[in-house]
Each structure stands twice: as structure tokens, then as C-alpha cells.
Amino acid sequence: MTKIFGHRGASKVCPENTMAAYTRAYEMGADGLEIDVHLTSDGIPVIIHDDTVKRTTNGKGYVKHFTLAEIKQLDAGSWFSSAFQHERILTLEEFLQWICRTPLLLNIELKNNKVHYEDLEKKVYSLVNAYGMKERTIYSSFNHYSLVQLRSMDPYIDIAPLYSSAIYEPWNYAKSMGALSVHPQFKSLHPIILESLQEHGIRVRPYTVNQEKWLHYFLDWQVDAIITDTPDVAVAIRNGEIPEPKGFILEVYNKMKKK
């Protein structure tokens, strides 16, 4: 069965990467959560998407320039709605303390493709193991060197390169770095590529799939997981509660799939 991952939680209805978004996604029936991790200036892994705090808090500046105490003072919810004014940036450890008591799967994206964080891989890996989440955690990143470093630390963890455009024979590229999973931008998955990935035993989890027609499409392909801002809609479609729409893109892709 295709798993449903809440992208930064239920980020369509709650401020992304907050506890409100995570608990809401869990309530919606998501099978897992996708989160983003940076380091503070004092080396603490915290959960936020951007390199800076400007878009999703009431502060300004790079995450790497804030101490944990300073970043904890920021309001991480009011930008979305005043109803979330008490949301704060979570540390990875605070989040793990919660998720380890649930059955949820976890996808940690290491956000070090633009900013270098000393020992980010080791710190995240150690915390995941400390909370017994190793078997339920997938590590992804646009920084593929970082994933190779994680692989060198542990040959058994699930690493998944993120990419947003066509990669030549991505199944071979993934295997070259010791990965058996990929997280491609969903529109890069031409049916021939998707079919070849599956034939080569590579787990496929496209991001960020929000439109109903595309959710139907990837569920029909039985990909391993779908990463979405709308886990409630994805779960409803998987449960057969929302009928498949008729649309040009879906019809064309289905025809291509059958060739």
C-alpha cells in the first residue's frame, strides 16, 4: 500500500514544521511525516525549512546565526494565522520525543545543500537512534554528499536523494551512492522512468503531490509513498472516497504508461 507522508506536516491547514501541523497530519491518517533540519549556532538540530527564519517566523536572519535560546523566542505560527501564535520552532529532540510514541514513519530532510553545518549528519543520526527511530526513518537531501556520508556511518539506513529534474538512469545513480530510494519532484517522473525505477527495485516517493489528479495517478502506479501538503485528501483518495477525475494530463500519462 502506498504510504502517505505529510509534507512538513499538514502544511495546507497549519503552519509548516510545527507541532500543530504534525499532530494534525497524524489525525488525518498520514502514515509518516516529512521534516526539515538545520543547526543553530550552538549546534542544536532544529526543524525549519528555510535557511533563514524570515518567511515562517516573526524574526530575521539565518538559522545558523541564532542560538537555541534565541530561536525559541520566535513566533512560528502567526504568519499563517493568529490562531497559531503560540507555535515555536521545535528541536529535533523535542519532535522525536513525540513521534517515537506514535506508529508514524519519519522522513528527515537534511537542509545543508546551501549552508554547511558541521556534523549535521552525525548529530541527527545519533538522536534518531537514541529515540529508537532508526527502523522508521528515511534520510533525504539535495546534498547527495551528505547522504553518502550517512551511508558510510550505517549501511542499513534508508537514504533517498532528492532531485527536481531529469537524472539519466536515476536507478543506477541511486545505487551508485548506496541508495535504494529516491525522492523526485513529481513532474520529473515520466512513466518510462517510473517504470524503470520500480523494475530496478528502487523505492519511489515523489514530492510534493497536492492535486487530486496527480494523487490518483501515483496511487494507481502504487509508488512506495507520496509526500503531500494535503494528507487528508491523499488518504481519502487511497480509501476510494474521492473518484478519479477525468483530465487531459492524467489521460495522456495513462496512455503513455500502457505503451
Q: What structural class is derived from the secondary structure elements?
A: alpha/beta
The portion of residues assigned to helices is 25-40%
What is the global morphology? globular
SSE series: EHEEHEHEHEHEHEHEHEHH
- Tally the helices: what do you get? 10
How far from one another are the termini?
24 Å
Instruction: Describe the sheet with the most strands.
Output: 10 strands, mixed
Radius of gyration: 18 Å
Residue fraction in strands = 15-25%
Count of β-strands = 10
Low-confidence segments: none
The overall average pLDDT, rounded, is 95
Give structural notes:
This protein has 259 residues and is an alpha/beta fold. The protein is 34% helix and 17% strand. The chain is built from ten helices and ten strands. It has helices at 19-28, 68-71, 92-99, 120-130, 144-153, 170-176, 191-199, 212-221, 231-238, 248-258; strands at residues 3-7, 32-39, 45-47, 90-91, 105-110, 137-141, 158-163, 181-184, 203-204, 225-228. Strands 1, 2, 3, 4, 5, 6, 7, 8, 9 and 10 form a ten-stranded mixed sheet that branches. A hairpin with a 5-residue loop joins strand 2 (32-39) and strand 3 (45-47). The chain is globular. It starts with a strand and ends with a helix. The mean pLDDT is 95.
